[in-house]
Amino acid sequence: RPHRLPVRHSILMLGMLLIIFSLPATARTDLKLLILLSSDKPSYQTVALEIKQRLQASTTVDATIQVRTVEAWKQQGSVSAHHHAQLAVAVGMKASRALLSRPVGFPVLSVLIPRLSYEALLKQLADNTPDIPEHSALFLDQPIERQLKLTQLLLPGQRHAGVVIAQASQTLKQEINEAAQQAGIKMSIAEVADKQDIVATLTEKLQAIDVLLAVFDPAIIDRQTAKQILYLSYRRRFPVIAYSRALATAGALASVYTTPAQTGHQAADFIEHRLSTPQRHWPASEYPRYFSIACNNTVARYLNLNGVCHQPLQEQLGAEQ
Fold it and tell me: What top-level class would CATH report for the domain 144-257+291-317?
């Protein structure tokens, strides 16, 4: 004989179901988004794909998304191509320049762009562009505090760090000094007028350092000068804490960096938060919230730092997954 619920229970359950199904669905904010890629290279496409997937899965945003390269956008006619957009994500420097130099009429979020390059672009546009759109950036480079914290995890007994920057980067110099002071690390800063002098300056001014922090300064750092720094560190036997996975592979002891997928993740978070909490002013730029760590065990052994790469560095540094 089948078991039957008491009538009172049946009525109660029916009432609960009616209440649940009568609740209004959470309103989703409509968004017409343009993702403009500097080129079609894989890292840019990864950012776009991550943004698309996260916004399409969002419970708060109903996004219609166009993805274009700068070249395709210009061929289509930039005015018609962005005619219906409410917001754009510019992936890379070329895309940022293309959008910020035009009166597009909607905010622009730049990603995969170094902080100093972004600030230089804004300064250049301020002199030549009368109507720059509202703008923010998710910087490619890491905050100096994060590199210092990784240095302390890997090299807890080393208290004298060095860094090389361009002479013109005085704001960066001040920030490095303040972060080092808070971390209790002595910091020697070598200022370079010309990137051709980077090795000579490092050799002369950073002889007594325990570790070198490689900070991305586009005025002096490129592929060639990065190789020179790594070669000097190998010859002088001091570790380098860098800012990209490629540098860790090439000879830095370790790097803290953000992947394109992590950048896309943060960009989607940024957009969702902005739409859910409207503000009078467009939000400020941000350093990466999500990041990864690469540690070169071969370099660690060469420097007699056996075992340092086997620590749970990601957890200790507090990286958000």
Answer: alpha beta
